[in-house]
Amino acid sequence: MSALLAKRLGAIVMISIALAGVLFYLQKISPLDPVHARLGGQASASAVAAERHRLGLDRPEFTQFVDYVRGAVHGDLGDSYRTRRPVSTDLRAYLPATAELALSGLLIAMVLGVLLAFATTLRWKASSVLRPVLLLGASTPTFLLGIAGILLFYSKLHWLPATGRSSLADVPGGPTGLITVDALLHGRFDVFWDAVQHLIMPATAIALGPAVAIARVLRSSLVSDQRSDYARTARAKGLSEPAILIKHVLRNCVGAALSMTGLQVGLMFAGVLVIEQVFSWPGIGQYVAQSIPVADFPAISGVTLLLGVGYVVINTVVDLLQAVADPRIKV
Amino acid sequence: MHLAFGPAAEKTVTDPGASTSEAQAIEVASIEDLHVTFRRSGKDIAALRGVSLDIRRGEILGLVGESGSGKSVLGLALLGLLDARADVRGAVRVAGRDMAHCDQSARREVRRVHLGAVFQDPMTSLNPTMRVGRQVAEVAGSKDEAERLLGAVGIPDPASRMDAFPHELSGGLRQRVMIAMAVAGNPDLIVADEPTTALDVTVQAQVLTLLRSLRDEIGCSVLLITHDLGCAAQVADRVAVMYAGRLAELGSSAEVLARASHPYTLALLRSRLSLASDRTTSLLALPGEVPNPAAPEPGCAFAPRCDLAGPACLDAPPPPLEVRPGHLSACVVPAVEVTSRLAEVVRAAVVPHPEREPHNDDVVTLYRVQKSFRVGAGRTTRRLQALRGVNLTVGRGESVALVGESGSGKSTLLRIVAGLESFDGGKLEVAGPDCPQMVFQDAGASLTPWLTVGEIIGERLRGISRAERAAKVAQALAHVGLPAEVAKAKSAQLSGGQRQRVSLARATVVAPSILLCDEPTSALDVSLAASVINLIGGLRRELGMSVLFVTHDLSVARVVADRIAVMYLGRIVEVGDADQITSQPVHPYTQALMSAVPDMGREPVALRGEPASPLAPPAGCAFHSRCPKAIDDCGDALLDVRLTAVDRSAHHLAACIRATA
Questions:
Q1: B555 within a domain of the structure (yes/no)
Q2: CB contact residues (below 8 A), chain A span 294-323, against chain B
């Protein structure tokens, strides 16, 4: 296991450096001059030269790249042109909200996916309702889904809140920044419930697409493994169909579903950035949405790097989980 | 091995040798006029067409048939595991329940309490992600009981194997785990569907012996489903022969062997290879193929292939009639007449092989060829030593068989000669001008599915006109006994035997100097295997090719080859003329392989253990760990066992210090 772990960690580092390289050169070839962006169009030539020297932009490009990577490793992603604060400080402020939304979405996607797969494999009655509903949800664009949700559950039924992460004033500032987790750590169940209510709509909106994808992959491997020789052996032992599915077939099938989950995480990040606009969610999506129009390159590349590394890390975890599920995968 | 199986050991055990007229024996299962029809792509497939059969308490009933005979469907019907969409008529009574029609929970109960099952491939039949201890405990009830069962089926050190996953065990041990699950809870009946087909010959003998001793200990009945009449006759008390979904013959093993009364049984017995088969004539292959189950004939299904078929055979399928007490045969021709008339037919059909003129030049020369593969990655990399110095020559027009169990390196050697694999050390010379051609075990998988047979064969013909090419293809097909229309078909439209013929046509459309065959008959039915072997022999003589033939079966090797080389763990341990090797084997491993060949009326003799891992071949003589004759010197790391002449014959060599000293 440790050999695989070391190899995977090495891969994360390599991929992240490669990603940083791509971002760095995108920044270089963009027509935007960071010095003019900082000083404004009317700055004198000497002031521009001084600022260029101060930012280290007059050094060889490779040295700049090494410095950029070194800074990124230490958490220094440069200063935002817009907020004038270090990008890492901004990210620290916006990330918890996005992480909470993305993780909730992932959780909902996995639960719904497994439910749907089981329902259709075992031909539960519920599947005739669940399937069309999920399919409809998955084929609707995320933002439309969000707007439809607000119209129905907020404006019409008044069941769920439409904006923000919490409607309470005294949210405990906790160690993680995830309101649900912090509330539980502080024993504040009222805050927890309020945060969950805020999460349900946006998280479900981003989860439906991935849920259907996961369900489809899981279902097809469940169905084919139900016809496998070892399932026949289990049947010959006298086990019931649900027991065969849960005890024998499921573990052999999680591999495919896990890799699909890993792939869907990437799509989910895109969904998060959009849905945060719809629900006024104070996360990275808002930050990027404000940074893009003013070409705030350090902010945009900081977010890109963060999401990229997050994607690679999650897929590494998926690979490790696959090795745990299937003893034949040599580690 | 001794088993104590609790209260169930007191179950009444009928003497397995008891005469078949002992009608008072209680049945553990009885099948009454069973019809099973599947619907596949709009066609009705009649898998079983009226089978009645009783399985008596404590007996081993061998159920023999070729693919499509319905034998496995019968096994699944007993277990109540037939596809829910199948149309089932008749009754399958086990423990007072009709497994064909009672509800699912009742069937589960019967399976759990009264039945056990062993399936063909122990790798796929065990859950790959569950530890074997848990898989056995699931039926045994507790971990302790599971561990005891693993010991009882002869798994060494059961406590440490409890936590193993199936892929960490060898094929033989996996099948023992399956058997442990089958006997857990002392079932009345074990359905064993081809339990030894996926195993090496020496391991096959071990598993058959184990099944029989378990029956003797706990008194359960066993339904042994197999395609091999010899295998069934060796361990079964009674044998039932099936053909096209009906019972052809049923009787005690001794009776069926000595006085087979159905023409199909007789044909099976004739086409079956044994160590006593006549090498000087062609084999008596059964003509034709198994009938199409989607379009059953009104009369006897065997009539189109039967030498004795008359007008009476075409009206209605004949019911099984008693020819002697306890011996049934479903044939309209009286039993006495069947034997005498068939004997005449056979006498006329025997074609002796023409004498081969000896050639002195060699087509293939291997000198100290070595090959190892890297296994694993990173720090766990190990080298699998597939070939550890092999010397071999194949003369022009000569046929040489490579015999050995899995892991012996025989297929690697073949692939190296074919040029499909590189080698690490030594020398290889292959006479030109054409490169060797290969025929594989799985003919279906070796033919590109979207190309027609004509395109596949024609690929080897370059630079000639389309008409010439078509003519050559038709000629090649005619050589292998196929009509020219087959050229337009795709491989999926052909039967197994036809596919193997097509691969032979592809290999010989331009006659190669040497034809390489990798177990071309082991996936075929007994009756087809004989005709493919005849075909390879005929093509060899006609086209003057050499043949290098890989097989695990000495009785096949003996018939196809002039010389036999026996391999163990990457080395040739004995080589010589086919007759010499099979009549006077010198190496203990060859002797063990000989005695493991299933043969009728002879106890299976099992060699202990399984082939050692080619990742770490034992020091000294690699076979010493399993050898019944080994002495201390055999395991000496400094020992270099070389092939040495036996009786000063330059043709017969063996690598054993005990045999040639």
A1: yes
A2: none
Q: Which residues of B are less than 8 Å from A1 in CB distance?
A: none
Q: Which of B110, B129, B380 sits opposite A251 (nearest CB)?
A: B129
For residues B372 and B385, is the Cβ–Cβ distance under 8 A? Answer: yes
Q: Is residue B1 part of a domain?
A: no
Q: Which pair of tokens denotes residue B519? A: 């177990």
Tell whether B66 is covered by a domain. Answer: yes
Q: Smallest Cα–Cα separation from B497: which of B533, B463, B470, B460?
A: B533
Q: Which of A7, A8, A230 to mutate to test the interface with B (most CBs of B within 10 A)?
A: A230
CATH of the domain at B203: 3.40.50.300
Most A-contacting residue of B125, B163, B379 (CB-CB within 10 A), to test interface: B125
Query: What is the spatial distance between Cα B590 and Cα B588, in angstroms, rounded to a whole number?
Result: 6
Write out pLDDT tens, residues B298-320.
Answer: 889 898 888 888 888 888 888 89
What is the mean predicted confidence (pLDDT) over B205-231?
A: 90
Minimal-distance CA residue of chain B relative to A230: B125
Which two tokens mark A124? 């539960």
Cβ contact, residue pair B113, A228, below 8 Å: no
Report which of residues B286 and B480 the model is more confident about. Answer: B480
Count of residues making up chain B: 661
Query: In a 10 Å sphere around its CB, with 0-12 CB exposed, 13-18 middle and 19+ buried, how is residue A139 labelled?
Result: exposed
Same domain, B156 and B224: yes
Hey, how many other C-beta atoms are within 10 angstroms of the C-beta on B617?
21
- Chain B residues in contact with A235 (beta carbon < 8 A): 79, 81, 111
Burial B236-255 (b: 16+ CB within 10 A, else e): bbbbbbbbbbbbbbbbbbbb
For residue B537, give the nearest of B528, B547, B529 by alpha carbon: B547
Q: What's the average model confidence in pLDDT over A115-142?
A: 83
B530 and B400 together in one domain: yes
Sign of CA dihedral B275, B277, B283, B289: negative
Are B253 and B380 part of one and the same domain?
no
The domain total for chain B is: 4
Provide the ipTM: 0.80
Percent of chain A exceeding pLDDT 70 equals 99
**Which residue among B105, B113, B121 sits closest to A229, beta carbon to beta carbon?**
B121
pLDDT band for position B357 (cuts 50, 70, 90): low
Peptide bond into A34 cis (omega under 30): no
Which of B113, B115, B127 minimises the CB distance to A230? B127
- Hey, are the CB atoms on A237 and B111 less than 8 Å from each other? yes
Q: Which band of pLDDT confidence, cut at 50, 70 and 90, is reported for residue B71?
A: very high
Q: Which residues contact A61 (CB under 8 A, 6 or more apart)?
A: A28
Tell me the domains of chain A and their CATH numbers: 89-295 (1.10.3720.10)
Shared domain for B420 and B481, answered yes or no, is: no
Q: Are residues B287 and B242 in the same domain?
A: no
Q: Are B428 and B434 in contact (CB under 8 A)?
A: no
For residue B165, the chain A residues in CB contact (below 8 A) are 327-328
Of B258, B278, B298, the residue at which a domain comes to its end is: B258
CA distance to partner chain A, nearest, from residue B154 (Å): 21
- pLDDT confidence of residue A1: 60
Shortest alpha-carbon distance between residue B117 and chain A (Å): 6
Most B CBs within 10 Å, among A122, A227, A237, to test the B interface: A237
- Do B86 and B221 share a structural domain? yes
Question: Could you tell me the residue range of the domain that residue B171 belongs to?
Answer: 6-258
Is A327 at the interface with chain B, CB within 8 A?
yes
Residue B153 inside a domain? The answer is: yes
B345 and B396 belong to one structural domain: no
Contacts of B232 (CB under 8 A, 6+ apart): B62, B63, B64, B224, B226, B239, B253
- On whether both B506 and B516 belong to a single domain, the answer is no
